[in-house]
Amino acid sequence: MKVLSLRSVWMPTRKSIECVLQLVIVLLVWYTAPLVFELPQGNSIEIAKSIGLMLVLALVAFVVVIVVCWWLLNRMLVALALPGIGDMVLCFNELSRWEQIKVGFGLFALFVFAAVAVIVAVL
């Protein structure tokens, strides 16, 4: 016979509360930044002032994209049953110097190819 439990499966932890607070801060910045940089209509200096707003909003969007990418990376590692990032770093430190150099050059080549792909996509 199964007994029903009235406890919820998810209990808030310190980490989840921190994530929610960070999300609230990002949303507050996103919605209050236009109010801070707001100027009267018809001002010739309005374009120059809107550059600051664009920088703030771009920074917020960049941080959100980085957090989502980090979350997706961790989910992918869990789904593929691979070790975590910390374990991978420890394994990297156990490699010989020549193997570390080869991995470094491989990553550099990947970054160069990614940069070329971005430039080609922009053009």
Automatic annotation (TrEMBL):
Lineage summary: Bacteria, Pseudomonadati, Bacteroidota, Sphingobacteriia, Sphingobacteriales
UniProt entry keywords in alphabetical sequence: Membrane, Transmembrane, Transmembrane helix
Protein name listed in UniProt: Uncharacterized protein
Residues passing through the membrane, by range: 20-39, 51-73, 103-122
Key word Membrane present: yes
